Amino acid sequence: MNDSSPLSTVCRLPSTWDERYAAFGAEDRREPSPFVAACLPRLPRQGYALDIAAGAGRHSLALAQHGLRVDAVDRSRQGLYLAKQRAIEAGLEPGKNLCLIVADLERPWLPRRDYDVILVSFFLCRPLFPMIKAQLRPGGWLVYETLTIHQTFGPDRQPARPDFLLQPQELKDAFADFELVFYDEVNQNQRATAQLLARKVVVSEQLPVISGQ
Ligand SMILES: C[S@@+](CC[C@H](N)C(=O)[O-])C[C@H]1O[C@@H](n2cnc3c(N)ncnc32)[C@H](O)[C@@H]1O
Predict the structure, then answer these.
(1) From the CA of 121, how far away is ligand 1's center (Å)?
(2) Left (φ > 0), alpha (ψ -120 to 50) or beta: where does 169 sit?
């Protein structure tokens, strides 16, 4: 499977993500998605990032190479093992600028930290939305890209669960309290996705008015 495949959030049952990552070739899904690649220059070059459902780590590595300290969370040990191998090959230091965390995000659970960047790519778990909001620091960046209900699937490949697909405008509405930097719903390279780049709003404290002398 390579990155141009439209199949990243669908299952060819009974394969699991562990089995799929075990079958990955050296070049499978190494490069960031075009949307994430386009967002990278806007993101801070220091601080902490969280890659939710990081898989084989293509975006975790890109964020770490950008300068961020990355927590990469996924349920698949095989995916994170591949991420670790690829990080070492790239000269990164797993444990230092890349922390790999095996966890089931449907519990729902996220590591506790104030993140400067949270990235979600081709994963949807709506109960995580409030946690994403809470664990981004004010001014922090959210990069989110995943499939919408406009995605079409071949007869032998169906979505693992239909509720893994976004409704039109759903992502934008879910983060309506963020400052929207970019939002689009596109159908490119056989993928129908919503793409969102947004910042958590800084709530400035109302300063008391000091009357003149
Ligand atoms: C389509 S892949 C996306 C991987 C990566 N974000 C990317 O864009 O290359 C979906 C990922 O979600 C992970 N995943 C699915 N359900 C999960 C869960 N409940 N908890 C944690 N990870 C999960 C899978 O293991 C898989 O790595």
Answers:
(1) 8
(2) left
Could you tell me the distance, in angstroms and rounded to a whole number, from the CA of residue 199 to the centre of ligand 1? 23
CA geometry: angle 122, 27, 2, nearest 5 deg? 45
Residue-wise pLDDT for 66-99, tens only, equals 999 999 999 999 999 999 999 999 999 989 999 9
Q: How many A from CA of 171 to the centre of ligand 1?
A: 18
Q: Is 58 in the pocket of ligand 1 (CB under 6 A)?
A: yes
Alpha-carbon separation of residue 195 from 16, 48, 113, 160 (angstroms) = 26, 22, 24, 21
Q: Which two tokens stand for residue 130?
A: 């409030």
109 within some domain: yes
Q: Is the pTM of this model over 0.85?
A: yes
CB 146, CB 121: distance < 8 Å: yes
Q: Residue 206's pLDDT is what?
A: 62
CA atoms within 13 A on the CB side of 185: 13
Containing structural domain, residue 167: 32-200
Check pocket membership of 60 for ligand 1, CB cut-off 6 A: no
CATH number (domain holding residue 159): 3.40.50.150
